[in-house]
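Blackboard transcription, Thursday session:
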Amino acid sequence: MKIISSKKELLRALNIVTKAVPAKTTMPVLMCVLIDASTDVIKFTANDMELGIETKVDGIIAEKGIIALEAKLFSDLVRKLDEDDVTISSDEKSSTLITCGKSKFNIMGQNGEDFPYLPFVEKDYQFSMSQFTLKETIRQTVFSIATSEANKTLTGELFDIRENQLRIISLDGHRISIRAISLKDSYENRKVIVPGKTLNEISKILTGETEDMVNISLTENHILFEFEENLVVSRLIEGSFFNVDQMLTNNYDTKIRINRQDFVSCIDRSTLLVKEGDKRPIILNIEDNEIELKISSQIGTMNDFLDIDQEGKNIKIGFNPRFLLDALRVIDDEEVDIYFMNQKSPCFIRDEKQSYIYMILPVNFVD
Amino acid sequence: MKIISSKKELLRALNIVTKAVPAKTTMPVLMCVLIDASTDVIKFTANDMELGIETKVDGIIAEKGIIALEAKLFSDLVRKLDEDDVTISSDEKSSTLITCGKSKFNIMGQNGEDFPYLPFVEKDYQFSMSQFTLKETIRQTVFSIATSEANKTLTGELFDIRENQLRIISLDGHRISIRAISLKDSYENRKVIVPGKTLNEISKILTGETEDMVNISLTENHILFEFEENLVVSRLIEGSFFNVDQMLTNNYDTKIRINRQDFVSCIDRSTLLVKEGDKRPIILNIEDNEIELKISSQIGTMNDFLDIDQEGKNIKIGFNPRFLLDALRVIDDEEVDIYFMNQKSPCFIRDEKQSYIYMILPVNFVD
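(Written on the board underneath:)
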């Protein structure tokens, strides 16, 4: 095999596909990037058997063939080459010569035939959205994925499609995050669970531009993302997701409207008094259009006050400050509405259109 | 004690003095920053008993006194306060109230009387230079300080003053770095060894501006740096430093002039083939106005070529690529001159004025 491409293009492709190279594996070939120049286009592929990424590479095929090169060495090497054309040629024993200007590197590759194919995904069920929307929505929900593997389904996010609405939902034992996206067309109802790792990795590759689109296809076992020269395919998580709708309610006894950034700053300060692993709550005392924030620990005590618009009765309620921060930080609105029922019931941070809903369970506290 | 200062000023002062707070210590009070408002000025001090830093703080003393506050908590707290005036008041039991706007924090301080004084340093022997010069010179030499504590003197840098010249010298078992600075006046000859840690920390505080000056005073046991509102005092390392002059020579059999950046890029690439801990040399083959760089390891082989101006005979010599990189990266010149004697003798990278000299020992290699 022999291909010629620019350092810049190789680096672009490597930065994308290496997101699917596993940190460790029992199959050494998976630590490689596959260079496939067996057809008329050059493709780079990486595959950890759950997540696979392929991208087309702009370049010249001087001799058809395939080769697998150790991903980290290959990426580091390309990164350190001069800005110039790079020639990669390998012989039948997988010995590979990389040349750029007067620099010559000789490294051992692995047989490309040993590299596992990406699964083929039918495109019968396909919808699209902007890369901006997908990237943002992942950021705004992925933090509340369960970290424990105890319930595998909760390590992913539910993609819940009903007609022309997609809801992306994550939850752990303490909170639920929901973002709703309007789709251009209507689709048959469908629910799939996408691994959190897949979403984290794809959000690093998405440009985040509103004018760039991404096509998403679903099959029974896979989800496929196609955008620009890239193709990302991931296994879905089997099983049924927790029914979040049973937890949601529009009833409330107290509603407050609060400046989001001020609220974030206050809570953020309070966390200085809470040592890692300490489950000390922040107490919100909502009374007569003012909220008092209180926390006390072995380290010290904090009191802070913010003006709010209040509707309904006064309430005193405790939360894990981290959970409030996680939700408030991914909301873009300058002011947020928060709904409370009582000390024992979750609060809901949501906008009027319910384009986002963040539910957080309260914690007990001693006053 | 009660003082009022702005968040911004407190943060500036804390960012400076906390450089002298030890990572761990058997004296808990050393984990604190001392707020000394017992006179007409507010001073913050930190002291790890080897290095001490004091800075004056702009603010109002409402009630004289001193208090020691845990450095990390105090810094983090100030950092997260709103941009406003901050009031710090402590009672006789060291209970301390920090208020800013509507935010109130109550934390326990420690008795300021328990905090060790900084040593008093006479200013009989004092010279000065720009902060730029000191900061740069530290950067350009500190990398070749010995990391092993086997010879304590080599964990510091020699400040060698002869008349109006200061040479700052560091060395480990494999290389020597020397930078010469011209002083404005002439001084009695003096040699002191300044701990590497002191130099690393002070270089983080120095502005690096050519118009900002720093005054340096030496006594038998201490070095004092004074600049702006700051005072940094450090113990010196006892003992006598290795006599580097016996290692220096102006004789050579080969001299080359090479583009520094190209040389750095080439060597840098070669290190990809050397695993952490592997002592594999890069081989320089200097022949007829060209230098060939070669490295080979289990990972692969590299060959690269660069044009040079050569004077004297051809030579083939091996080096630890890391040592070449360390020296070449801190030189500002576009082209550097390198002097060789033979395969077994050190090379010297130096400019004509000898404002810098980097000596590196070669390593054996099998061709």
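Lecturer's comment: Residues 24 and 31 of chain B are 8 Å apart (CA to CA).
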